Model the fold of this input.
Amino acid sequence: MPRPADTSGLRVDALHNRNRILEAAREAFATLGLGVPMAAIARRAGVGVATLYRRFPTRESLITEVFADQMEACVSVVDEALADPDPWHGFCTVIEKVCAMQAADRGFTAAFLTAFPDAVDHERERVRAERGFAELTRRAKDAGRLRADFEPADLVLLLMANSGIVAESAEEALMASRRLVAYLLRSFQADPPGRADPLPPAPPFGLRHMYGLSPARSAG
Amino acid sequence: MPRPADTSGLRVDALHNRNRILEAAREAFATLGLGVPMAAIARRAGVGVATLYRRFPTRESLITEVFADQMEACVSVVDEALADPDPWHGFCTVIEKVCAMQAADRGFTAAFLTAFPDAVDHERERVRAERGFAELTRRAKDAGRLRADFEPADLVLLLMANSGIVAESAEEALMASRRLVAYLLRSFQADPPGRADPLPPAPPFGLRHMYGLSPARSAG
Done:
């Protein structure tokens, strides 16, 4: 799969630097958010700022590369779920796994929800994950397990809600996320026959709709 | 009810300034968050910075006063619900109203979730709202409508989830919040007899537990 930065022409020491930068950036984004200064990433990686900028000319290119793995993981989760013979189980598994990834890694959500102009491959994988999830949704509805008025916007709503969790440790965040997801999955289940309980209308949210929103915001 | 800033001794023009400051601050906190510079609030209010600081020596004292009304509204919502003969209806109404307030006003949540050292009255009202809600919870469980394993931490979880909503307008935020709350209230309902569906454990969250967390955080 093509990557924003092609590594095939790199010498061994350059590749070593590159991997150290990516590891430092991944950790810095996850703990400090996407706004962490480039100089701080270079320091954590033990490389000069010039080296960092030579490899990754923009913060966006670094973010794209750092999160390419996570995006691939998302796509894999959806692909696995599509192979699940039980569509409701597949649907729940995707939501549980993606929310756990989101809870474990603060930077992940921002990358997932934000568009960067040069994040072409990132975008392609998001579209693939989105289409796969739409197919899962259709199957779970056809199986009578997912409520008929579940909309794609509800996935965005769930990811936003999950991103609102603030905890003192990654373990607590994960615990809180599991509880929230368990509640929401219960409520996504189809009503028993003859007991329809309509919901208020879904907001006009799509992953695409969220591109314009700033990844940095204050609480509240 | 005692207020952080006693207004009884103020002359008419001073009171007029005070109200303009509070109105400007309320609007600035709601739209820009609690971190908005004091000078920007003074400018919006059309008063000098010195006047602002004479009236409100610290940002905390201004926040406390601005949100005293909202805290009172919260307490009223809980008090009204306690007078509702249907405990499940009362429980749902509190959650719907508080989440709508939270969705309509970004500053509100931060004030609600954050402790300020001199926000004594604010704190007292929060404790009162918290105790009232605990009583509502007990009654809704006794009536067999609220699931027995609902915990106070779930209210915190719901407020966090609701605060994760990011929308392009207050109307969209409110629409999204209503949908999220409708989903969560469905899932808070007691399981039908003989169909118990246990939840993962609740996180160790309390409103008190959240005091140590910073009100300013980045998305994700």
Observations:
- The mean pLDDT of chain A is 80.
